[in-house]
Every structure is written in C-alpha cells, then in structure tokens.
C-alpha cells in the first residue's frame, strides 16, 4: 500500500512510499481508511522536525471501515464504520489510565506518532489497546459521514476545553484566541452552550478565509489583535469586568497575557495551545485577579461519547471547516496549504 512515512527526525524527512499492508494478529482490527485529516501538529513536525512522534506512517486523525479482525475479536466485524481516538499503547496501570484519562498516560504511544497511523490505505488497531481501553475504537453513528468522523479529534479537543473544563454557563461571555480548527470549533461549543458573547481573537490576515466561517460557528465579535486595542474592545463588548472565560487555542505567551487582562476576576482561562517560548512577564496579575489557568490536553471518553451524540443528531456545523479534500498522494500540497493558511481543515483520501 502507499503511505506517508516519516523516516527521520530532521525537517521534511517524510516521503510517499510503498509500505507492506498491516498484518492482523489474533486480537487486532484492520481498518480501511476512508478519510484522514491533516493536523496542525503534522504541519509543525514536518517543517520543524524533532523527536516527537518517532519513525512510522504518520496521520492520527482518521476514520474508516473494518476490513479484517483477528480470530479472538468479538466486538468488531468487517463492515463496521469506525473512528479511532488514535491511542495505540498505554500502560493501563498509572493514575491517568486507572482514571480513564488514557491520553495522559506517560507511556502512551499514538497511532501516527510512534506507531503506524492513518495516512495510508490501511491501519491496524492493536489488540492490546482494545483490551485496556474499550473506547480506543468507536462506531460511527448511522448517517454521520466519514468526513465528519475523521475530524473528531479536534472536535473532541474543543468540546473538552469548553464543556468540561471552562465552567462556561449560559448567559456568560467567552473569548476564544486563535481561529484555527480547534478555535473555530471552540466558538461553536460556546455558542451551543448559550454564551451571550462569543469573541474570537485573531489577526487581520485571518479575516480573508476565516471571518465568515467564524460567524457561521456562532462568533458574535471578531477582534484583530494586531490592529485593534484588545482590552478596549473587550470592555466595549463585555463591560469593564471583562469576559467570564477564555479559551487559548493559540498558545503564545502574549496570548496568555491578553487572556489575563481580558478575563474578569475569578474567571477561568483554559490553555489549549502550546508554545516553546518562555514567559517574559510577571504572573502577579493572575494572582491578584484570582484567575484559574487550566492546562488542557486532548480529550477523554466523555468527550468522544458526547461528540458522537451531537453528530448523530446533526447538531454541529462542520462543512464550513472542511475546505479541501485531496488524494493521499497530494499530502505534501495539503501540508503546505495548511502552513500558508489556505485551508482550515484539509482531508486526505487514500
């Protein structure tokens, strides 16, 4: 089969090559990938390199159909429409695993990051993980297209940040920084949950492709932080106390500083985005304002179960986010398009 393979740790050490089809052990499940999605982390690893991810077939956002199961598998059968949470291995013993937070296992290995992933015709879900983590593989509800299921990773990320971690209540105000896929999805969840103000913060350059999409997601105000006075605009929309909640999907230190200044006293900031840059400012205002900063990582079973439920009832708007579908052999074009902000969510079709 053809697959996108990462063969080294330097930037751009990826290639489209022939790979053997995965072999099915007695407890394994083989999936034929219908669609896989390019993630921002795929783009970062491709251009920056680094040891994160390991040597393997890449791609951790995908959905498809079961085509083969091992002799000892009883939960799955050929023809099942499925999506993976991309977990390939966990220890099953640590605090995270025993709490059902498998994405936080210190020994976790992800499909597409250390184990062969979904930028290929076929991908194997190891039987080991299916014994430990029953929700590592999930059925796609009837009527939900594979395209939607393939982007459940960012959907569940956004859901957890807003619905499970922020404490947002109907009638409150929310700021979402960063109009990427997770940020746009986060604004949609803020809208669904009844926020009276859903304020997206981006750059002037974001308006061309993302402003109309942001309004479709439920955004009520868009602030271009490179062209407008952020604090003045927040006070204009929310009043002098500021917003109740901020979801940082950008990650830069300057964004955290903005969030602290834009959220009211006793408010909550959920930090989804990440950056290697050190903080260059004091955190005293965080203390004086009695704000909570919540670190965020991925999702859990509740996120997946509830997001699958929302999809089954057609309660999420996803078509505006899926801007391009490319054949798998055009994976490199898709990565460059993502980097150049020419697309929002780009799918690959093997």
TrEMBL record:
Q: Which cofactor does it need?
A: Zn(2+)
Signal sequence region: none
Keywords attached to this Swiss-Prot or TrEMBL record, sorted alphabetically, are:
Metal-binding, Oxidoreductase, Zinc
| The Enoyl reductase (ER) domain, residue ranges | 12-348
Cite the InterPro entries for this sequence: ADH-like_C (IPR013149), ADH-like_N (IPR013154), ADH_Zn_CS (IPR002328), ER (IPR020843), GroES-like_sf (IPR011032), NAD(P)-bd_dom_sf (IPR036291), Zn_alcohol_dh (IPR050129)
* Record GO terms (molecular function): oxidoreductase activity; zinc ion binding
One Pfam family of this chain? ADH_zinc_N
Annotated Gene3D superfamilies: Medium-chain alcohol dehydrogenases, catalytic domain, NAD(P)-binding Rossmann-like Domain
Q: Which family does it belong to?
A: Belongs to the zinc-containing alcohol dehydrogenase family.
Spell out the protein name for this chain. Answer: Zinc-binding dehydrogenase
- Organism, as annotated: Agathobaculum faecis
């Amino acid at each position: 089969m053809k697959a996108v393979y990462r063969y080294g740790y330097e930037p751009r050490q990826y290639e489209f090559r022939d790979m053997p089809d995965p072999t099915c052990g007695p407890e394994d499940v083989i999936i034929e990938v219908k669609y896989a999605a390019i993630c921002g982390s795929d783009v970062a690893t491709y251009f920056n390199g680094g040891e994160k991810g390991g040597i393997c077939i890449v791609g951790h956002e995908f959905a498809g159909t079961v085509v083969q199961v091992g002799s000892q598998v009883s939960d799955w059968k050929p023809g099942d429409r499925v999506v993976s949470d991309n977990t390939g291995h966990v220890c099953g013993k640590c605090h995270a695993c025993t709490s059902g937070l498998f994405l936080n296992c210190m020994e976790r290995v992800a499909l597409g990051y250390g184990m062969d992933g979904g930028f290929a015709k076929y991908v194997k879900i190891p039987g080991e993980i299916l014994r430990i983590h029953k929700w590592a593989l999930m059925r796609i509800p009837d009527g939900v297209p594979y395209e939607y299921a393939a982007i459940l990773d960012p959907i569940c990320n956004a859901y957890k940040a807003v619905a499970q971690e922020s404490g947002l209540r109907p009638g409150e105000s929310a700021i979402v920084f960063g109009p990427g896929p997770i940020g746009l999805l986060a604004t949609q969840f803020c809208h669904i949950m009844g926020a009276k103000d859903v304020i997206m913060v981006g750059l002037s350059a974001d308006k061309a492709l993302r402003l109309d999409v942001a309004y479709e997601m439920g955004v009520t105000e868009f602030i271009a932080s490179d062209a407008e006075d952020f604090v003045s605009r927040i006070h204009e929309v929310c009043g002098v106390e500021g917003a109740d909640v901020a979801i940082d999907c950008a990650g830069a230190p300057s964004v955290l500083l903005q969030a602290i200044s834009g959220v009211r006293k006793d408010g909550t900031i959920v930090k989804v985005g990440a950056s290697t840059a050190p903080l260059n400012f004091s955190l005293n205002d965080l203390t004086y304002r009695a704000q909570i900063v919540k670190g965020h990582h991925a999702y859990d079973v509740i996120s997946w179960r509830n997001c699958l439920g929302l999809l089954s009832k057609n309660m999420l708007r996803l078509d505006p986010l899926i801007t391009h579908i490319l054949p798998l052999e055009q994976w490199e074009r898709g990565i460059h398009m993502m980097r150049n902000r020419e697309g929002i969510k780009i799918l690959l079709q093997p």
